[in-house]
């Protein structure tokens, strides 16, 4: 019996991660130049803006939100704009510091992206446009770049404070 209690206590200290919920927090689609844009030859320039954010819901629960904006233009005309905020609630326990940042800033958005991509593709099709399958995104590289930028900015601020004395 004591061995089972020790095993249970040992598991509490083990890192734990679980996806609890995935949902669309916000979704919008605009096609400001319809139906005129359907007369154009379909060779769109597609741009993608993305952002991630997270917030702590409780001691071990976090909401992560992946925000994507897709803009498709044909020439100078906007064919469509899709904006989505794909959310997820994740249980993260026994993971702290840089590992927690990596988990919330890269790993969780990686889980959310296919859901956002599917929602975007569906709404684009409902707008009578050809399917748009967004290419995979390397969230680890994006997170690493953001971390380096923050470190560089912190070094710059520290240097400015040092020279101000």
From TrEMBL:
It is found in: Cytoplasm. NCBIfam families: PRK05751.1-4 (NF004393), secB (TIGR00809). Keywords: Chaperone, Cytoplasm, Protein transport, Translocation, Transport. The keyword Acetylation does not apply. HAMAP family: SecB. Pfam families: SecB (PF02556). This is Protein-export protein SecB. It comes from Marinobacter xestospongiae. Homotetramer, a dimer of dimers. One homotetramer interacts with 1 SecA dimer. InterPro entries: SecB (IPR003708), SecB-like_sf (IPR035958). Belongs to the SecB family.
